[in-house]
Amino acid sequence: MPTLDEARAIIAGALAEARRRGAKPLAVIVLDAGGHPVAFEREDGASLFRHDIARAKAFGALGMGSDTRAIAERAAGNPAFFTSVVVASGGNLALSAGGVIVRDLAGAIVGAVGISGDTSDVDEACAIAGIDAAGLNHGANS
Amino acid sequence: MPTLDEARAIIAGALAEARRRGAKPLAVIVLDAGGHPVAFEREDGASLFRHDIARAKAFGALGMGSDTRAIAERAAGNPAFFTSVVVASGGNLALSAGGVIVRDLAGAIVGAVGISGDTSDVDEACAIAGIDAAGLNHGANS
Amino acid sequence: MPTLDEARAIIAGALAEARRRGAKPLAVIVLDAGGHPVAFEREDGASLFRHDIARAKAFGALGMGSDTRAIAERAAGNPAFFTSVVVASGGNLALSAGGVIVRDLAGAIVGAVGISGDTSDVDEACAIAGIDAAGLNHGANS
Amino acid sequence: MPTLDEARAIIAGALAEARRRGAKPLAVIVLDAGGHPVAFEREDGASLFRHDIARAKAFGALGMGSDTRAIAERAAGNPAFFTSVVVASGGNLALSAGGVIVRDLAGAIVGAVGISGDTSDVDEACAIAGIDAAGLNHGANS
């Protein structure tokens, strides 16, 4: 949970949205609720850190219990604390939108999606499109 | 290279072989020639280390320039050295069959596959089935 | 790719430019497209971190798909995010000019050069001189 | 110390010996007495871990004050201790011949050479040939 089938649906939906938008090549990861990878794909041409950044967005969302958009906004006002969390977590937090918590229809956290490759706004929009395509929920208050 | 399409074909072929054999749940990763992830899938029920072991098999094959079956055989006769390589490489070497180098039709290394979840013999057989299914070559002397 | 001969030509060209300019002692590294070292030289008198900084400039350029001059400029406006990338990448990103992507004549990324020792402007100028001397291309839009 | 010129002479001498012998592609590193890289070259076709293994051979020789041939022999009789040293040193010790201490003509340690790529005997022979070619001394009792 998410099942591999759900993770595949999330990635397929995210990449379909990316191609509709003409986004730069993306890396997309789906983690389970424990932060462990379920599925990952890197589009041809995406640069080498995209995997690590996507994973750190998804893991960071789970780690703080909040999408990385909100975490990044809080970090802008308190960078020293969030830098200390980045280091304390072993680099498992990327302070940029594009890490989105995945919830089941009852609202329980089942995992997270992380995307890196384009602007953080595009990354996040593709993550949300993927979660929608898989018939799951997203967001802190979904 | 492998392209994402090739990596997907490798994973699909490996998991089809796993289901034909009734294998335990597997994790399958495809790395590019530099050791960076292109695609990954973990079947439902696979335990948490399967990702890390699969990655360390694939990376270790690239790192030593040999499938991990041959590396593991050499390690049995010289465990202290291979333990030191495991540490020197930052854990990027798993001493068990199931890490297989992927070559293009001209014999050039284009990446590696790593699989973990069942016995190392089954893991390796599924990796080779996946490479075959994608129309690529494997093995040091292919 | 770059071949060892090309990497030697890049380093020789970079250090020749450094001596023409009377630069401080430099460390120069050439990485392949996967971020693995091909060749390295540290001039007498260069301090101990120069190797690590040069490598983190070159690796960071590959990791983000952009010369470190552009990355450093973006980091000035968003330091918390780029600090999180530094940690997520295991320290493989130095936020200063002097990491330059190397392309072949068709524009494909074949590796990167990283230089540390003088100001970042001088470091970068020597990196570009080295790439030019080797008959290769540089820059995101070359 | 070794100077960059000396390090270049060591590498050139080592690779000349390797080509005379028809050795597999090698990675050769020269470290200063503090264990910091002075120069490195990886021949085309050498696999990805050769850098890390060569460095761990050279650093390990300095770390224990002995060529890695002798360290590996001691490790065979006491693997648990040497494995603990491998981990305690952060992976800076490879338990295989091919790490050779470099001494000046007065016998003082000035650095170390590490080579990886062929058998440990060939690696070590090339390291010694390189030190000889540079007009320096090697060995614990030189």
UniProtKB/TrEMBL annotation, chains A, B, C, D:
Gene3D superfamilies: Haem-degrading domain. It holds the Pfam family HbpS-like. This is Heme-binding protein.
